Protein 1
Amino acid sequence: NAGVTQTPKFQVLKTGQSMTLQCAQDMNHNSMYWYRQDPGMGLRLIYYSASEGTTDKGEVPNGYNVSRLNKREFSLRLESAAPSQTSVYFCASRSGQELYGYTFGSGTRLTVV
Amino acid sequence: GENVEQHPSTLSVQEGDSAVIKCTYSDSASNYFPWYKQELGKRPQLIIDIRSNVGEKKDQRIAVTLNKTAKHFSLHITETQPEDSAVYFCAASIGSARQLTFGSGTQLTVLP
């Protein structure tokens, strides 16, 4: 049981380049989330998907797009990377059961130069 | 939207002493309050959580208390050990998708 798998683990991009962060979960969870983590700012929600086929903006969606490809996969795309997007990105998933905690992936450390 | 404030940002305690981290939230509709521990370079891991219909929950050396009237909740760690050193995050859940809003984190250092 792998839980939540994120790829890649590390990435360096040049300003203006694009890339997609991949996330997959094997726990049959309904809801999936993308967070970014910056020093001193905790984790901030970028986008989430309450269920397959739906996506919604979180606190900091600008510069990002997402795709809920199927129940297992939820990808995050940076169309034109900016240095302000240098961060650690975490994907998480949650069972549809009421009031149940998240399971986080291991994170992607992204540097935009 | 929901806003979660967490204090202190750093906390140092002697091994064996207790540590307390406090959080306040803004939206009275929040009803789920988890705490996460994150070791350096690792993913956040859920250590304890509390629902809004409960005032206190314990799990061995850790406990969480919730005051709905004052909209604050706290993490208590007793008999601290060096392996408790980490960043701790509180969070509050709101919305049908139960998206979490996190506090800014507390760096706990347990001194041997």
Protein 2
Amino acid sequence: KAGVTQTPRYLIKTRGQQVTLSCSPISGHRSVSWYQQTPGQGLQFLFEYFSETQRNKGNFPGRFSGRQFSNSRSEMNVSTLELGDSALYLCASSLTNTAEQFFGPGTRLTVL
Amino acid sequence: GQQVMQIPQYQHVQEGEDFTTYCNSSTTLSNIQWYKQRPGGHPVFLIQLVKSGEVKKQKRLTFQFGEAKKNSSLHITATQTTDVGTYFCAGPSAGGTSYGKLTFGQGTILTVHP
């Protein structure tokens, strides 16, 4: 099976812009979670989607949003980018109610 | 809120030495997971522990879950250069309704000198 794919892999934006990141889970996986990874804060949970519904949400401002499509693909959007949004954004998929999270390679976002 | 602490933050060892990283949660966990992230890579699932006092082995790696289900450890025997990376523990977040919401420890960065 193909692994989790994320596009784009690298992105450079300027403050105030918005960005959309895409994640394609492993075939058959219906749960998709998003995490932000930074050197200072580590891995922090953003949100989880299951069957097109947001099932869990982390402590991030409303500028961070996401959605999931009927084919389980997910997107996350960050509006009004700030310098502090520079991070590696990781998507993980899993089978329903199983523990193992399969992470994608991530999207490296740099905000200038 | 729930916190998962990991120590040490860094560990430098000579190849062949043992390595241990410790994980402590502020709340009781239903399970704990361990992940490894190679430099420049993404986290890769290693194992899940569910039972109080559980011990699991994967070749040179030994994982333990504390009796109170609030702490865990990962021990690597006779490290190799391929063990280099960051090791994370993670537990289901308090109030989370599924496994998809994990609270990660800060990770232990392991460097192995040949």
